[in-house]
Specification:
Blueprint (H helix, E strand, L loop, with lengths): L4 H19 L7 H20 L9 H5 L4 H6 L1 H6 L12 H22 L6 H24 L10 H22 L4 H7 L5 H10 L2 H5 L6 H13 L4
Helix pairs in contact: 6-7, 6-9, 7-8, 7-10, 8-10
């Protein structure tokens, strides 16, 4: 909502699609039904990518008006990655976990940035992955309550190391991205809480397990307002 109206008209369908895909594995206890829901979205994106007739749907229809074929194809991996949520198997290793974040939060931010006019999104995808980790940390208590194993190594030291590495990646990506125009900055502003959250997790990783990883409401609002007024992120 801190971005210009013309950009919001593009981002709303994209993020509505992400919400629907992300929730698909959680609205049923039947793995087959969850698989079918994800396949439905995979098929819808394929229709958009092919450029032919697209199914009429409150999200798919406006999404087809903003995505090009390449962007629709890029979102295939996001749908596929959400299959992890259906089952209770752990990630094979840290690399698999990082790939999951890259294929979900990373891909989503990269496509959003393209819709805002960004031509190079490699480092923007890194920023998305880092933001995905911060949000993942916040979700860990809920994931564990649902019988999932969210981390390869859940020890406090391992959590702190993940946060430290992510912050280093975030810093490097910011340097590589450099100055961007107002629209791209508005997309990148979607990650406005990640750095602060990860610093908390690095300093005191126990807050992740305890479900106490968050920023105060005043700090959130002031930080977002300041970045918005300065077209920063």
């Amino acid at each position: 909502m801190s971005g210009p109206l013309h950009l919001r008209e593009k981002l709303f369908p994209l993020y509505a699609m992400n919400v629907e895909v992300a929730r698909a594995p959680w609205v049923t206890q039947e793995s087959m039904i969850a698989e079918m829901r994800l396949q439905w979205w995979r098929d819808a994106l394929e229709e958009i990518a092919k450029g032919g007739e697209v199914r009429r749907h409150e999200v798919v229809t406006p999404l087809s008006e903003v995505l090009n074929s390449k962007q629709a194809e890029a979102l295939y991996v996001l749908v596929e990655a959400r299959r992890w949520d259906i089952y209770k198997d752990p990630f094979e290793d840290v690399a698999a976990f990082q790939t999951h974040l890259d294929d979900t939060a990373g891909v989503l931010l990269a496509v959003a940035a393209e819709l805002a006019g960004a031509s190079e999104t490699q480092h923007i995808q890194t920023v998305g992955r880092v933001d995905g980790l911060a949000r993942w940390f916040q979700a860990i208590p809920a994931l564990e309550a649902q019988g999932r194993i969210p981390l390869v190594d859940g020890r406090a030291s391992a959590v702190a190391e993940l946060a430290k590495e992510a912050l280093a990646d975030f810093k490097m990506a910011r340097v590589e991205i450099g100055r961007v125009d107002r629209d791209v900055a508005a997309v990148l502003r979607l990650t406005w809480q990640s750095s602060s959250l990860l610093k908390q997790a690095m300093k005191n990783p126990n807050v992740v397990q305890e479900g106490n990883l968050y920023n105060g409401e005043f700090r959130n609002k002031f930080s977002l307002l300041w970045k918005s007024l300065n077209a920063n992120w």
